[in-house]
Design goal:
The complex is a heterodimer. Chain A is mostly helical. Chain A has two helices and no strands. Chain A is elongated, with a radius of gyration of 19 Å. The two termini of chain B are about 45 Å apart. Chain B is about 50% helix and about 15% strand. In chain B, strands 1-18-23-22-21-20-19 form a seven-stranded antiparallel beta sheet, with helices on both faces. A seven-stranded mixed beta sheet of chain B has the order 16-28-27-26-17-24-25, sandwiched between helices. Chain B is α+β, with helices and mostly antiparallel strands. The chains are: A mainly alpha, B alpha+beta. The interface between A and B is medium-sized, with 30 and 38 residues.
Chain lengths: ~50, ~850
C-alpha cells in the first residue's frame, strides 16, 4: 500500500492544476459574460477578430 | 359625466385592427394603415425601420433577418435618432471615456439602446464590415454593452456612433467604467474563492471516506496518519484562503462591537481548525476537516449567489445612468451649434436647449420663449413660462420651443449640484439597522460559548483531553452554517424575482426593512401623478379626435403635443390632413379639415366667437375640482368638444394606496407643489388630506424624514425628483419611481423600472415572503442546533455524526428555500409596460 505515498500527493497536485486552470479562465474574463458566447459560436460565415 | 380617456388605450372601434398581412419588413410589427405604400413589395412601420433595412441590405448582411426569426425574440421598431454625435470627438469626452489600446488603436465602451436578441449580437459584431476603420466590436448581450476597438487614423468616433445609430442602436458612453471594473473584479474574486473552497471540500471528503472506512474496517496507523496529515494540509488551505472571508467579517464585528453572523461561524472554523491541527500533531483525537471544508464551500456559494444578484441590479441602474443624455448643444462664436459633453460646458457659454431636452446648466435665457417643466427640481406640476432674461435651472425640461441660454453656473455649483450635496447629508443621517441574522449571530455566540464552557466543566473530571474534545465538537456542530448559507440565498432569490418584474433592489437589507409595516411617504408630482401634461378627460363628440390630432400635429405647444400623443393611434389608422393651420397667440389654433372650419383653444378665445355647449358647466366644474386646463374644440362656429389637460393621477395609485393601508402601512404625502393641489391629489387616491403637506423644499423633506426616523419610526420614502433625492437617501428605504431624475435614482435603494405605484405593493409582498422564509429557516436551523448541542454535550458527537448532521441541516434548509412557493405572477398589462427601449435592457430576467 505504500503506493499511497505517491498517489495521494499526486491527487492533490491534480486538484491544484484543476483549480489553477479555473482561476486562469476566470481572470481572463471567460465567465464574465455567459450569454453572448453561446450565440457567437453559431456565427459561421466570417470572423471579425482582428 | 365626462368619459375618462386613457391615451394608451385607444377605443377599439375607432382604430380598426391592422390586417395581419401588412407587417414591417424590419421589425415585424403591424404597419399602420396610413403608412402602407401601395405596390411596394416591402412595407415599413416607420422611417427608422426603412433606413435600417436599407443599410443592412446594402451591406450584404441580410442574414440578420433569418437569424432573428430563429431567435424568436420580441422586437420593436428601430429607433434611429439621426444625431450627429459630434461631442464624441471632444477632447473632454475622449479623456473621460476612451482608452488607448496597443498599436495606436483606441477602445470605448458603449451602452446600446435597442439590443434585444442574438441577431443584434450578430449584426453589431459585423460593425467592422459596415464602418471601415473599426477593428473589433464585442457585445455583451445581457448588459447591452459593446466594446468597440477602432483605428483613430481611419475613422472618427462620431462616424462609428452614427453608424450604430443608423442601425437602430443609439450608443451612449458607459458612464461608470471604473465601477463596472471594480464589480467585475469582485465577482471574479468570489468565483475563485468558491472554486478553491470546492476543490478543498471535495478532496477532504474523499480522505474522510478513507478514514471512516478505516475506523470501521481497521487501518494501519501509518496510513491513518498520512491521511490525517493530508487532511490537515487541505483543511488549512481551505480555512486560510477562502475561509479568510469569515475571519475578516468576524474581526470587523469585534472591532465595531456589533454582532454579525460571521462571528459564530468564525468561532466554529477557528476552534475546529486549531483542535484538528493539534490532534494530528500529537497523533490522537478527532479531526473535523471534512465538515469544516464543506461548510466553507456552502457558505461561499450562498454569498456568491447573493453578490451576483445584487450586482445585476447595480449594473442595471448603472446602465440607466448611461442612457441619460450627457451632451449639450453649445453655440460657437461663429454661430454654429455643436454637440459638446456636458463636462466641457463653461460659465459664459451659450447653449441651445431644444424641446424635450433638459437644461445642462443654470443660466439665463438670451433668446426664445418657451414653457419649461420644473417638476423634478421643485415638485411643481404646472409648466412655467420663461422668456429672455429669465433664469433657467439645470435639469428643467424644455417643453415647447428652442431656447438659447447663457450659462452662469455649471456642475456642482448648479441648483441640482447643491441638492446633490444635500443628498450626501441625507445618506450620512441614515439610521443604521442591525439585520435579523446578525442580531441572532451575537446571541448565538454567547449561548454556544456558555454551552461549551458547561460541557467542558462537566467532562473535566473525566480528563482534560476528553473535555476539550467534547467542547470543540460542540463549537463545531453548533455553527449556524445552514442559516449562514440559506439567508443570502433567500435574499438573492427575492432580488431576482423582483428584477424580473422590473424592480431593481440594490441591497439585501432593504427586504428586511420593508417586511415590517411603517410609514410610507409619497411625493406627489411624478409619483402619485405621471409628472407630465396629458389628456385626462374628453367631453363631447368623440369622432373629432382624429381631426384634433391633424390640426395639432403642426404645433409645438405642449398641450398640442399631449393631444398628438393621445390621438396618435387613431390618426395613424385614419389619417386626415389639416389645411391653413394658424396659431393665434391669444390662445388657440385654427385650421380647415375636410372643408370644416376648426378652432381649438382656451375657453375664452373659442367661446368669444362660438357660443356655449350644454356640457360646458360640467366640464368647468371637473376642471376646477381637479385643477386641470380646459381646451375647447369648435367646428363651423359651434363648440362640439372639450378636452381637459393636466398632470393626471396614475391609474393604479388609489388601488396601490388602498392595498398598502390594508397591509398596515400608514401612507402620507410630502410634495413641493401647492398645498391645496397636494391635498386634492391625496384625497383622490384615498389619503386623508390632513396627512399631506405641500410647499416642501428639499430641505423640509429631508428634515421631516429625519424627524420621523429619529422617533424610532420606520420610514419608506417614494419619489422621483431631484428635490426628493436627499429624503430618499435619509429614509429607511428610498424608492425611486419610473421616469425619475438621475439623482433620485442614485440616492434610492430601490428603483421601479415600470410606471405606476403597484410595483411598491409587489415589492412589499416580496420582502414579506423573503423574511417569512428566513424566519422559518431560522426556526428549523435552531432545532437542528439544539439537537446537535444536546448530543455534543452528552459526548455523543463523533466527526462522523457531525459530517452527517451538518450537511443534512444545510440541505433541509436549502430545499426549503429553493422549494418555497413562488408567488403567482401578477398580470401585467402590456400597455403599461415601459416604452420600447427601456425595461428590457440591463437585466435578463
Amino acid at each position: 500500500m505504500s503506493i499511497l505515498y505517491i498517489v495521494l500527493p499526486l491527487a492533490v497536485v491534480l486538484a491544484v492544476i484543476a483549480v489553477s486552470a479555473f482561476c486562469w479562465a476566470v481572470r481572463r474574463g471567460q465567465f464574465d459574460d455567459l450569454d453572448s458566447p453561446a450565440w457567437r459560436m453559431l456565427d459561421d460565415d466570417d470572423t471579425t477578430r482582428g | 359625466m365626462p368619459a375618462t380617456l386613457d391615451p394608451t388605450r385607444a377605443d377599439p372601434a375607432s382604430c380598426p385592427a391592422p390586417t395581419a398581412d401588412t407587417v414591417c419588413a424590419h421589425c415585424g410589427l403591424p404597419v399602420p394603415r396610413g403608412l402602407i405604400e401601395p405596390g411596394a413589395d416591402q412595407q415599413f412601420c416607420c422611417n427608422g425601420c426603412r433606413t435600417v433595412h436599407r443599410l443592412i441590405r446594402d451591406n450584404g448582411l441580410a442574414s440578420f433577418y433569418n437569424l432573428r426569426d430563429h431567435a424568436a425574440a420580441s422586437v420593436k421598431p428601430a429607433q434611429v435618432t439621426g444625431r450627429r454625435y459630434d461631442e464624441f470627438a471632444d477632447p473632454k469626452f475622449v479623456d473621460l471615456y476612451c482608452r488607448d489600446a496597443p498599436n495606436g488603436l483606441k477602445t470605448v465602451d458603449f451602452v446600446l439602446e435597442g439590443v434585444h436578441c442574438a441577431a443584434c449580437l450578430w449584426l453589431i459584431e459585423r460593425l467592422p464590415r459596415i464602418a471601415a476603420g473599426v477593428i473589433e466590436a464585442r457585445l455583451a448581450l445581457g448588459a447591452s454593452t459593446a466594446r468597440i476597438t477602432w483605428d483613430p487614423a481611419a475613422v472618427t468616433l462620431p462616424q462609428i456612433a452614427r453608424t450604430l445609430d443608423s442601425l437602430g442602436y443609439p450608443p451612449h458612453p458607459l458612464r461608470d467604467r471604473a465601477g463596472q471594473d471594480v464589480r467585475t473584479r469582485e465577482d471574479r474574486r468570489y468565483m475563485i474563492l468558491t472554486a478553491i473552497a470546492g476543490a478543498c471540500a471535495g478532496n477532504a471528503m474523499l480522505l474522510a471516506f478513507a478514514l471512516y472506512a478505516g475506523m470501521f474496517g481497521g487501518i494501519e496507523e501509518e496510513f491513518r496518519q498520512l491521511f490525517r496529515w493530508v487532511s490537515v494540509f487541505i483543511g488549512v488551505v481551505s480555512l486560510a484562503v477562502p475561509g479568510r472571508v469569515f475571519f475578516r467579517g468576524a474581526w470587523a464585528a469585534i472591532r465595531a462591537r456589533t454582532p454579525n453572523l460571521d462571528l459564530p461561524i468564525a468561532l466554529a472554523l477557528g476552534a475546529g481548525g486549531v483542535a484538528g491541527v493539534v490532534n494530528v500533531a500529537v497523533g490522537r483525537g478527532e479531526i473535523y476537516f471534512d465538515s469544516l471544508t464543506v461548510l466553507v464551500f456552502l457558505l461561499l456559494i450562498g454569498r456568491w449567489v447573493q453578490h451576483r444578484q445584487q450586482r445585476r441590479a447595480a449594473d442595471a441602474v448603472e446602465l440607466l445612468f448611461s442612457l441619460t443624455p450627457s451632451c449639450a448643444r453649445r453655440v460657437e462664436p461663429d454661430g454654429q451649434v455643436r454637440e459638446t459633453p456636458i463636462e466641457a460646458i463653461e460659465e459664459g457659454d451659450v447653449v441651445e436647449v431644444r424641446p424635450g431636452d433638459a437644461a445642462p446648466a443654470d443660466g439665463r435665457v438670451v433668446e426664445g420663449a418657451s414653457c419649461v417643466r420644473q417638476s423634478l427640481l421643485t415638485g411643481e406640476s404646472r409648466p412655467v413660462e420663461v422668456g429672455p432674461g429669465e433664469p433657467l435651472f439645470a435639469g428643467t425640461i424644455n417643453l415647447q420651443s428652442v431656447l438659447r441660454v447663457r450659462v452662469s453656473r455649471t456642475g456642482r455649483d448648479t441648483r441640482v449640484g447643491r441638492l446633490m450635496q444635500l443628498v450626501e447629508q441625507g445618506a450620512r443621517d441614515k439610521a443604521p439597522i442591525v439585520r435579523l441574522t446578525d442580531r441572532i449571530g451575537g446571541w448565538f455566540v454567547m449561548t454556544v460559548i456558555a454551552f461549551a464552557t458547561v460541557t467542558f466543566a462537566a467532562w473535566a473530571t473525566r480528563g482534560v483531553g476528553l473535555a476539550v474534545d467534547h467542547a470543540v465538537a460542540l463549537l463545531i456542530v453548533a455553527c449556524p452554517c445552514a442559516l449562514g448559507m440559506t439567508t443570502p440565498l433567500a435574499m438573492a432569490i427575492a432580488i431576482g424575482r423582483a428584477a424580473r418584474r422590473d424592480i431593481l433592489i440594490k441591497g439585501g437589507d432593504v427586504l428586511e426593512r420593508l417586511a415590517r409595516p411603517g410609514v410610507i411617504v409619497l411625493d406627489k408630482t411624478g409619483t402619485i401623478t405621471a409628472g407630465r401634461t396629458r389628456l385626462v378627460h374628453w367631453f363631447g363628440d368623440a369622432s373629432l379626435q382624429t381631426t384634433v390630432a391633424a390640426v395639432e400635429r403642426g404645433c409645438s405647444h405642449h398641450i398640442a403635443r399631449a393631444c398628438v400623443e393621445a390621438f396618435e393611434d387613431a390618426w395613424n389608422h385614419d389619417p386626415v390632413e389639416a389645411d391653413a393651420v394658424a396659431a393665434h397667440p391669444e390662445g388657440g389654433v385654427s385650421a380647415t379639415v375636410g372643408g370644416r372650419r376648426i378652432k381649438i383653444g382656451s375657453p375664452r378665445w373659442v367661446e368669444a366667437s362660438e357660443g356655449a355647449a350644454p356640457w360646458l358647466d360640467d366640464a368647468r366644474k371637473v376642471c376646477d375640482d381637479e385643477s386641470l386646463t380646459l381646451v375647447l374644440v369648435a367646428v363651423d362656429g359651434a363648440v362640439q368638444a372639450g378636452m381637459a389637460f393636466g398632470d393626471a393621477i396614475r391609474d393604479d395609485a388609489a388601488d396601490a394606496v388602498a392595498r398598502l393601508r390594508r397591509d398596515g402601512w400608514e401612507v402620507t404625502v410630502l410634495s413641493g407643489d401647492d398645498p391645496a393641489l397636494t391635498a386634492a391629489a391625496a384625497a383622490r387616491v384615498g389619503i386623508d388630506p390632513a396627512q399631506s403637506r405641500g410647499a416642501q423644499t428639499p430641505e423640509d423633506k429631508l428634515g421631516r424624514i429625519n424627524a420621523m426616523t429619529r422617533d424610532g419610526g420606520h420610514v419608506v420614502m417614494v419619489g422621483d425628483g431631484v428635490n426628493d433625492a436627499a429624503a430618499l437617501a435619509a429614509a429607511s428605504v428610498g424608492i425611486a419611481v419610473h421616469g425619475g431624475a438621475e439623482a433620485s435614482l442614485a440616492a434610492a435603494d430601490v428603483y421601479l423600472d415600470q410606471p405606476g405605484l403597484m410595483p411598491i405593493v409587489d415589492l412589499v409582498e416580496t420582502a414579506r415572503r423573503a423574511m417569512r422564509l428566513i424566519r422559518r429557516n431560522l426556526a428549523v436551523s435552531l432545532a437542528y442546533n439544539a439537537l446537535a448541542v444536546g448530543l455534543a454535550a452528552a459526548g455523543l458527537i463523533t466527526p462522523l455524526a457531525a459530517a452527517i448532521l451538518m450537511p443534512l441541516s444545510s440541505f433541509t434548509l436549502l430545499a426549503m428555500t429553493l422549494g418555497a412557493p413562488s408567488p403567482e405572477t401578477r398580470h401585467v398589462d402590456p400597455l403599461h409596460r415601459p416604452a420600447p427601449g427601456r425595461g428590457a435592457r440591463g437585466h435578463r430576467g
